[in-house]
Known about the structure:
Strand order of the largest sheet: 1-4-3-2
CATH topology: 2,3-Dihydroxybiphenyl 1,2-Dioxygenase, domain 1
Number of helices: 3
Order of helices and strands: EHEEEHEHEEE
CATH class: Alpha Beta
Oligomer: single chain
Amino acid sequence: MKVIVTSIFVQDQDKALKFYTETLGFAKKHDIPVGEHRWIALVSPEDQDGTELLLEPNVHPAAKEYQKKIFAEGIPATMFGVADVHEEYNRLIKHGVIFTIEPTVMGDVTLAVFNDTCGNLIQIVQN
């Protein structure tokens, strides 16, 4: 068994698609209308057949409450691996991304946390 799709709640699918593709660099794999929303799945450009990241609309009250509470507590909604946290941090700063935690060494990893502008904090990690 392996993870093939994971999702992240977003307040606005169009805004999230733009941020995750244009700013973060993910590649769009699926964009399929499903009722009033869409099945938008992204992948890493380095692994087109890898785990898909679903931009899930937070229309359910439980989803909205979950997203709001973990954000308020400073808890990242998910984590992405990067080769060099400092390099990625500098690249994203140039794109106007707001970080809540600058690159920080914690044990065997270096991490940073940023606001995805769609209701989430995202952690990037370098092993």
